[in-house]
Amino acid sequence: MSRKILLKHIDVPGIRGLKAYRENGGYQALEKALKSMKPDEVTEEVKKSGLRGRGGAGFPAGMKWSFIAKPEGVPRYLVCNADESEPGTFKDRYLMSHLPHALIEGMIVSSFALGANTSYIYIRGEMLYVYHILEEAIAEAYEAGLLGKNILGSGFSLDLYVHPGGGAYICGEETALIESLEGKRGNPRIKPPFPAVKGVWGCPTVVNNVETIASVPHIVNMGGDEYAKIGIGKSTGTKLISACGHINKPGVYEIELGLPAEEFLYSDNYCGGIRNGKKLKAVVAGGSSVPILPGELFLKTANGEPRLMSYESLADGGFASGTMLGSGGFIVMDEDTSIVKNLWNFTRFYHHESCGQCSPCREGTGWMEKLLHKFLDGHATIEDIDLLWDIQSKIEGKTICPLGDAAAWPVASAIRHFRSEFEEYVKNPHSIKDVKHYFRINNLVEQ
Amino acid sequence: MRHKDKSEVVFSDDASALIAKIIKRYPVGKQKSAILPVLHIAQAEFDGWLSVPVMDKVSEILSIQPIEVYEVASFYTMFNLKPVGKCVIEVCRTGPCWLMGAEDIVKYIEKKLNIKEGQTSSDGMFTLKTVECLASCGTAPMMQIGQTYHENLTTNKVDDILDDYRNQGVCISHFAKDKIKA
Ligand SMILES: Cc1cc2nc3c(=O)[nH]c(=O)nc-3n(C[C@H](O)[C@H](O)[C@H](O)COP(=O)(O)O)c2cc1C
Ligand code: SF4
Ligand code: FES
């Protein structure tokens, strides 16, 4: 089994509460940081650790922190991105609902490093039950003097609040999240200025993912250099992977980065292989936005090297034969899955979630959804495949925020790797109807 | 309609106190930031949906223009702008759940309640909505009712769950007002 850091104590009874969390080493990093370190020293350790943002883009966290502007007399803010809504991703909800204090401790230590005296956790509105768990844990932390004025006599003060969203995938994009926190529609902002200079209410702001922030106390405890020894190359540390789809053991797994992909998919310590004895067809390795890979290319790179669960190895081969680690939303499809129908569903999702500011994204996602529907209805022509390709290529890189790319990449990769399946729908329009069990769960009774 | 205009919209004392607390979480003058939590509270107070008088009342509470509330309420999918049943069923319809049979769950509920997605059953008990990935893909197919995630659904399970809610007969909402402490 891989080394566990974030989830080490997840099975301890009562770990959701402050008492059990403290008894298992909780809030030691807070004491260490506030009592014996300067804010910049904390940032330095995070830099040394090589920790990369766990929200999807993988940007080095320490570097992001060092960009924050520090104009005199202007407050700075840390905002935790707990909007988790990338299809296939469910690690942040898992972490927050079981270990709320891990996030809270991370928020306090990170706010200290950034010099923020008010911080927010922006949580998906749909997760209101987790909102209530966090509220309770925050109240406990205030009571124990871990939040509020002059924390542990250090002179550092912090108010921490949870803020619920209202249901909008786009609010996971950091500038849309900031707009939303200001009480507006979630329309992403044009960058620059970056949030580190002009974020919420025009003040310097850092936005980090739940898992990124929850990793910080561990880095403070063990030291950045020690943390950097875990993992492989520039993929340091452990990563939560939420595994779903047609596997025997769906769930959230903490892996040491660099774990062989084959072991992750087939070992009983993790996904446990494909369910019902079926064969593997395809994997979407990092949330719905990343390119889909046929099973063989997921397990081995185009050069025949075994694929590893790391930022670099999953990206090996670029978009021609690789993908991305993304958010760690790991979706597995067995041999009976219709790639075209799944793609239609994803594209419908992006169309629904487009904020509508940029024409390529607003119109393009709708056109792609309509075209894909033609395949499902049996009315598509061979030219429609090229048209789909053309549309996606005109969205990618031409929009305000990366949702446009996120909508384009699944389409491009599906055509790149599964073109024959699209052609089959054109040649044999009834094939989609012939295969009844594309999306059936076994224990559902026929109606 | 329950309220003719905003003057008839009266929040309970608990809700008003909670709103006052929440507004203080944001810097002075930035009270507009409280709009999402306040709309959640309003929806929980007034039958699970936001009427124009309710939204007007919220704009008054936050000292902003009514249009600023309408544009937000219409952007976010959790806010219902039409009356709903006592119990809103939200079935996840996104890829990973679809792979595991969500399509069948939606069809089953439609047939069982004799409604289509987006409609309310004739007894006013259930409204069926489909929603996007609720970060529960490992326990697909799934649906949310109020605060509760119902996971690893089968049609038998759906029967039991809906029977339970029907027997309770009360209005179920996302927001549990009593749990806010800070
Ligand atoms: C459409 C879209 C949705 C996103 N959703 C999320 C999300 O739900 N959670 C998240 O942490 N980051 C999300 N991101 C990435 C954020 O913009 C941002 O990069 C991240 O929160 C930064 O934190 P990190 O550096 O710690 O990963 C999303 C980005 C885009 C373009
Ligand atoms: S790319 Fe799409 S979601 Fe992003 S700003 Fe443009 S229209 Fe909005
Ligand atoms: S796809 Fe349904 S919970 Fe993620």
What is the strand and helix layout of this fold?
The complex is a heterodimer of chains A (447) and B (182).
Chain A: H1 18-23, H2 28-36, H3 39-49, H4 61-66, E1 77-82, H5 91-98, H6 100-114, E2 118-123, H7 128-143, E3 159-164, H8 174-181, E4 205-209, H9 210-222, H10 224-228, E5 231-232, E6 235-236, E7 238-245, E8 251-256, E9 259-260, H11 261-266, E10 280-284, E11 293-294, H12 295-299, E12 308-309, H13 311-315, H14 318-321, E13 329-334, H15 339-353, H16 359-377, H17 382-395, H18 403-427, H19 431-434
Chain B: H1 13-23, H2 35-45, H3 52-61, H4 66-75, E1 87-92, H5 95-99, H6 102-113, E2 126-131, E3 143-145, E4 148-150, H7 155-168
Parallel strand pairs in B: 1-2
Antiparallel strand pairs in B: 1-3, 3-4
Helix pairs in contact in B: 3-4
The complex binds flavin mononucleotide, iron/sulfur cluster (SF4) and FE2/S2 (inorganic) cluster.
Flavin mononucleotide is lined by residues 53-57, 59, 61, 81, 83-86, 170, 172-174, 207-209, 212, 401-403, 406 of chain A.
Report on the architecture of this protein:
The complex is a heterodimer of chains A (447) and B (182). In chain A, 43% of the residues lie in helices and 13% in strands. Chain A is of the alpha/beta class and 447 residues long. Chain A folds into three domains: 18-229, 3-Layer(aba) Sandwich (Rossmann fold), CATH 3.40.50; 233-334, Ubiquitin-like (UB roll) (Roll), CATH 3.10.20.600; 339-434, NADH-ubiquinone oxidoreductase 51kDa subunit, iron-sulphur binding domain (de novo design (two linked rop proteins)), CATH 1.20.1440.230. In chain A, the strands form four sheets. In chain A, strands 8-7-13-10-11 form a five-stranded mixed beta sheet. In chain A, a hairpin with a 2-residue loop joins strand 5 (231-232) and strand 6 (235-236). In chain A, helix 3 (39-49) packs across helix 6. Chain B has two domains: 6-75, Orthogonal Bundle (Arc Repressor Mutant, subunit A), CATH 1.10.10; 87-168, Glutaredoxin. Helices cover 40% and strands 10% of the residues of chain B. Chain B has a four-stranded mixed beta sheet with strand order 2-1-3-4, covered by helices on one side. In chain B, a hairpin with a 2-residue loop joins strand 3 and strand 4 (148-150). The two termini of chain B are 34 Å apart. Chains A and B meet through helix 7, strand 3, strand 7, strand 13 and helix 15 of A and helix 2, helix 4, helix 5 and helix 6 of B. FE2/S2 (inorganic) cluster is lined by residues 92, 94-97, 133-137, 140, 142 of chain B.
